[in-house]
């Protein structure tokens, strides 16, 4: 597959989503462990439905493939959506579908690049997300990156007879230490 380095980290980069990855995305979105964390375990995605979803993400314009810097291997995707340009807010979403890259900090690195893009390129002031209370790994990752819990919807998700809260978190531009100027070697004072 062909990828383009839009935002580059230490071990990965964010590239525009490539529709040629449809088979991999369809495989991942039908993986129950991934789908539960995304909140769509009950949905069944064939290639056509996943293609429609990817085309919609591409059209929205702020969604990226997460790609390994070392091997150019697709890891997952992330994006910023529900942009409000007047109030300078947006939401983020992410998933790492490639299990070989789980629990190794790749999600944190991708979110950090995405936040940098949101705050320093899109000029957002507030970026939020939601996560289910059973997803302890994701919650820990978000907290380490500076997200703060701003509320929750109690018992919003039921899985196998157990009820879980949906937790809402956000981060402000003033709480994020970006790196776009460092990466581009621009002088922000001019």
UniProtKB/TrEMBL annotation:
Matching Pfam families: Acetyltransf_3 (PF13302)
InterPro entries according to UniProt: Acyl_CoA_acyltransferase (IPR016181), GNAT_dom (IPR000182)
Record-annotated membrane-spanning stretches: none
MF-aspect GO terms: acyltransferase activity, transferring groups other than amino-acyl groups
Matches recorded under PROSITE patterns: GNAT (PS51186)
Domain of life of the source: Bacteria
Domain N-acetyltransferase residues, every copy: 20-174
Cross-referenced Gene3D superfamilies: 3.40.630.30
Protein name (record): GNAT family N-acetyltransferase
Source organism per UniProt: Halonatronomonas betaini
Lineage: Bacteria, Bacillati, Bacillota, Clostridia, Halanaerobiales
